[in-house]
Amino acid sequence: TISAETQMEAGREAGLQVVLMREIEAEEAARLKDHPNWLGLCWHDEPTGAFWGKNMEEKYQEFLDYKETLHTAAPGRPLFINDVPWIAAPATPWWIKWNTAGDVACHDNYPIMSRKRRARTIGNEEQKSGIPDTVTLAVSANKETKPVWLIVGAFLTRGHGAFPFRMATPMQLRSQVYAGLIHGATGII
Description:
Blueprint: H1 4-14, E1 18-20, H2 26-32, E2 38-45, H3 47-50, H4 56-73, E3 79-83, H5 92-101, E4 105-109, H6 131-141, E5 148-152, H7 170-182, E6 187-188
Parallel strand pairs: 1-2, 2-3, 3-4, 4-5, 5-6
């Protein structure tokens, strides 16, 4: 694992802000608390999906405890999770809980699928899981009081799995970004 300090310095050299994608120890957070390139920390990727049917309540409490630890060691550094776009029942209550607990509401929504499969649309009336739906829920659940970041699908994956994403066209990428911004996203990743 590359140290957080090394990641911050790489961010400084590249002129970028860094979001750490893992827990760091309180001592390390305290050392880095004033680093100008540290934007925030993402505690876990997609907890609604990753912990579903497992130890969700225990993991949620673990997140809240870590949030207190991080805020003591590095006041002002946002801590959040990145969640899935699964907002339909039965996931809705947990999705809202996870997406209101952090300092930033963040989720991904990748609608551009392989041409061999039926694409999820950027706004899916049938499934209610399109970018307008997920961003609107994040904004309203947080009563417009915190940043809402959307991670859009701007990549390609190989394989024939359940989610064979393909690279978005420039028009599709613009559509994802605009759909997010129009519905209240304050940041695009």
